[in-house]
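Case study B.
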Amino acid sequence: MTAYIIRRVLWLIPVIITVSIVTFVLMHNAPGGPWDRDISTRQVDATTQARLNEYYGLDKPLWRQYIAYLIGDFNSEDVFVCGLACGNMGPSYRVRGRSIQDILFSAPEDKPFYYSRFGYSVRLALASLSIAIFVGIPIGTIAALKQNSIIDYASLFLATVGISVPSFVMAIFLIIILASWLHLISVVPKSWDTLRPWILPAIVMGLGTTAYTARLTRSSMLEVMRMDYIRTARAKGLAERVVVTRHMIKNALIPVVTILGPALAGLVTGSFIIETMFGFPGMGRAYVTAIGQRDYSMILGTTLIYAGLVAVANLSVDIVYVLIDPRIQLND
Amino acid sequence: MSVTAAQNSSQISELELDKLRPSRSLFADAWARLIRNKASVTGIVIIVFFALLAIFAPLIAPHNPLQINDNMGFLPPAWVQRSNSGAAGNPSFLFGTDTLGRDVLSRVIYGARVSMVVGFIPTTIILLVGSVVGMLAGYTGGKVDNLLMRLTDVIYAFPDLLFFIIVMISLRDTWIGQLMNGLFLLFIALAIVNWVGVARLMRGQVLSIKEKEFVEAARCVGAKDTHIMVKHILPNALGPLIVSAAFSIPGMIITEAILGYLGIGLRPATDPSAIFVTSWGVLLLEGQTAINAQPFMLLVPALCVALIVLAFTFLGDGLRDALDPRMRGAQ
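Model:
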């Protein structure tokens, strides 16, 4: 088990390197650069651009820039600046004087960590995930207990709709109906400190996961309900409530629990379009903005964080499976 | 006594009928099961409807989608007597017009073309590439297999939407990004990310099928490897492959819509003879700017995306139940 985990974690290194090379090459291929994309301000003149390029090392050959990003390089004052290997994700080209890890992970003054951009994204993802858990699992359970009833069909239909209709289309429907027609909410609120503005993005983002959780719970419940030990439990005279909660749900949740990790990673990484739509101050919007501004280090940094999250989440599935189901052995 | 005799004879005739009934192949059987499923029939009807819209768009659309009508911009839908701006609906523009006075309905009809093409072409590519590589990896094992698995790990770790965004932005202005209004590049990007899933599925299928007795029997009578792969393994592995293709189509359509919505998908055409004039994603982006004044510019394409995606999901569900009855009801 430990050896397996270590091997999987080590395997992350080549994955991260490949992902970073692909991203690096592609984004440097994009027309324009970090200094010339802002239409609203005055264009930077050629000499300043050359000096900025020199200062940030953008005048060096691409392979050297990449090595500088990954491992480190000597800057213009011959001081060695360590790269990604020491956790330094490089300076932002647009927010002068701040590094990427500073922008993404540190909160504004005297605010706790979860006020950072990363923290905002994680909080939104957690809110969506809790909706998925507290709505999806009960719906799936009830649907399975009342199999082939109208409740079952209705929830199954809703779950299919929830899984297939993409979240940004759902967001468009809800924004038009709730904000534009009924004036119940305001999109792009001034402050995210109250609960109200969180409701709509969290629901929109959580809908797909909720629907998926409900479907998974239902099918898993249906499988468990046919098991012999359920018949045994009933035969020995347990109350139906005990049979359902202690024997059925507990066993039926095994596959559901294993998807929670990837679901959380999917919510964190998949949120950027919703974040952009709602003006949410998270990491996803930073990514979208960075792409428009050609902020190379920000693009690379966010992509790598996302890739790392996805990889860790996939690993978590295997580990959680072993932890909750002792019949499974990892030997691959 | 005579009654039992009659019963007997009827039983015998039933038995004979059973023998006489032509044997049906797996796929004929699956088709019969598929068209008994109401949800998937609904899905097929919707897909056919949109496919017809896409093919015959020039005949169906009431206006040219690029035709600019001066002084007719921002008309409300036809049934509105008086909108916020004071304009009344015009019966010839069912869902109203956009900023430039172009007919929303006609633009949505033309948008169906892009979604249908984006759904089908990359899926065909990934099915071809994925099944060939998966077959080789599963059948021969060794280096090809190892390489495939490592490649899958890398591609799975790459958040795919981020990959599409970066590819679309960096290669948009090259010649490859100009082909088919940028759709060609999108096909390639979609195919690069998605083929590994098919390959892995195929590999798993092949690994289990190649241990079966009928493959061993074929090998015993001296069948060549290619013959075994094509004639014995492929038909048996096809079911899950078809199901996964049906489920991958909505993902492609959604990706196109998201990219169009971010303004980096299809390039809206200005040439009236272009085949791909606009897409639902591009329409969503255009509609976004007038969300309060002209909600129908946004609602109609959004509804279309939702409908087509649902239709493919229903079809996929039906196909899964039809092709693999053992899986029925699972997930």
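Chain A touches chain B through 50 residues (CB under 8 Å). The remaining cases will be described in the next quarterly update.
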